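Below is our example:

___
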Amino acid sequence: MARSTIPDKATDETKDKLLADYDDLVKSYESQFSAYSVWMDEDARAGSILIASMEDEFATEIANFERSHQMWSFLRDRYEATGHSSYFVFVRQEQLIRHGDLTVDELYTQLSAVWRQIDLLRHPLSPSTCEFCQGHQSDIELQRTYAFLTHLRGEHETLRA
């Protein structure tokens, strides 16, 4: 590391300026080091709280990380709901809807709400400009028609035929 020195032929004014600059640098370093130390303490505390608030089986997955942001990133990547898991949830929700005491309109409204959620997870289609998309959209609508008919009570058997 290079040492700062004051040249022998420096004027008193130059020496004073160099010393003042040095003092400013030391104060800046001390201030930054103090802020860094506080941040490290708070980060360690956050990590400890996070680990202490979890079940042991989950805490062991993150205990070896050095920083709390690494812990949070790992947990987010591991447990965040993905498009696939959300899609599965909505498909399962669709399967669980029963006509029961619902009117036909209420049944259709519930199914439509689930289908809209599924549509938000799909890649957008452009049936107005894409021939393949027109066919795909038509297949989706036919599938939903069959799904709706299979959800109807037995008294509506004539509609299914």
In short: The chain has a mean pLDDT of 87. The helical segments are 12-52, 56-62, 68-79, 83-96, 104-121, 131-151, 157-160.
